[in-house]
Amino acid sequence: MAKILVIDDERPIRSTLREILEYEDFKVEDAEDGIAGLDLMRKNEYDLVLCDIKMPKMDGLEVLERVRLLKPDLPLVMISGHGTIDTAVEALKNGAFDYIPKPLDLNRLLVTVRNALDRNTLVEETKVLKKKINQSKITEIVGESEPIMEIKSMIEKVAPTDARVLITGGNGTGKELVARQLHELSNRAKGPFVEVNCAAIPAELIESELFGHEKGAFTSAIKQRRGKFEQAIGGTLFLDEIGDMSLSAQAKVLRALQESKITRVGGDKEIKVDVRVLAATNKDLRKEIEANLFREDLYHRLSVILIHVPALNDRRADIPLLANHFRVKLLEEHGMPEKTFTKDGMKELQKVNWTGNIRELRNVVERLLILCDKQIDGPSVKMFANPAV
Predict the structure, then answer these.
(1) How far apart are CA 159 and CA 165, in angstroms?
(2) How many angstroms from the chain centroid is the CA of residue 131?
């Protein structure tokens, strides 16, 4: 139920507005002047304020000015029986949501109130979405173990350059996190970061995905399409699981890296692409080369810098930091009350065989937060960390 504050020095007006708004299922409080209204706003939260302009002690325009500083997102609708067009314009220029003259038109009042509340809801939703987006962009690599400190040092050295980097490591170790931090610390940080999961795209579509296609290039090509290389111009292209790319696509990627040019499928025009390429794989590409499944020349093009991300089992000292990092993040995401790990709970986490690496740890922490009470102890970790399949 929305909560509305009415500020007006005329008791009949306050009573009328209260009656109308309460009939529409709004919760209403009122104040007889601007000073009393501001005092209520400091103590309580409101979704909307209806404020008269001509009042003793403090007029409505001054209230508006102070509220813009106190609660900038709180919508104010100004009302007055003595206003002029200039007054209305001044109120709107100073941040009022709307201006309604007296005597009040009931239909206009209710429409304005609902529009202001809808706008308030959109502002709050936008804040939440921006917060989520910003959180999703945070790519801090959590850990203080020796292997992780070496990776952080390497990233700091390599990121400002345009050198290609090949990131190796098992599934769930955080290869994408390394790639994103390389991008964010680079001179291309303001450009796009475009990711391609080579393992998730069928072999017959990978070339179209990477290089785009012209209209009519194949049956379903009903219009021209820009590929990932073009989309990443000025930024970074991250080829994840590149060990799963077909040999024909590998040949075209090699050419693109050699010449910084691509040609769309079904086209003959060469397109220049200024792109930094990062690649990652969970495979041993040396063995793939021996088996004739990966081009050796492409491997050398991609591996100017090699970064290996260790398995979580090889960096157990980082588990407390990672577990608490996920704990704080997940409690906020789920809106849960505070929950913590006991010392024996954390020790049990460090004993688990993390075959799924950091991704598995995050899932386990989420499971424990949902199923456990205020404290997550050793027996709880034993019970829920590796549930029976």
Answers:
(1) 9
(2) 6
